[in-house]
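Table S2 (continued). Query chain:
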Amino acid sequence: MIPQRIVPARYGDTRGWFTESYNKRALAALGIYHDFVQDNHSFSAARGTLRGIHFQSPPHAQAKLVRCLAGAIWDIAVDLRAGSPTYGKWIAAELSAAGGEQLFVPVGFGHGFVTLTENAEVAYKASSYYAPDSEGGVAWDDPDLAIPWPLDGAEPLLSGKDGVLPRLSEWKSPFAYDGHPLVEFNQGSNP
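Corresponding output:
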């Protein structure tokens, strides 16, 4: 399974709009069959807040369905599956409250984002419960990943934990390659 950019339909009128932000049948039609068990919600006051690159290891590995509820973010998924021909490659998509875009991040991919606006809110569904002993991550600024974070030359606002994550070369992946290499989509990638 690979990351997918999803844009649910919006139905508007003079009052505003309506959308189904989650529809199990619609996701199944895209090949996404996960049962999501937890919803997470973050708020970032400052533009340039960077969260990630995070994952949970098996047996508590998580797939995520990410969307932006307020403001805008630049969201990434990094292939961390051992043996994958696209290991260490990434894709990115801008997600905004105005556009309603979503990014599906499967198990085996690290996830992170940087806020493009002040007062950004992000919500995501997770397919496994939070398990502190299984959480991990890789360095957001790893030169081997070469992710061009849209920071306009500024330093990101990071958590202490995100500032000390290992580089990809210092870490052994617990994720197995499933036979589906990462493929590019139109928002930005380095497959």
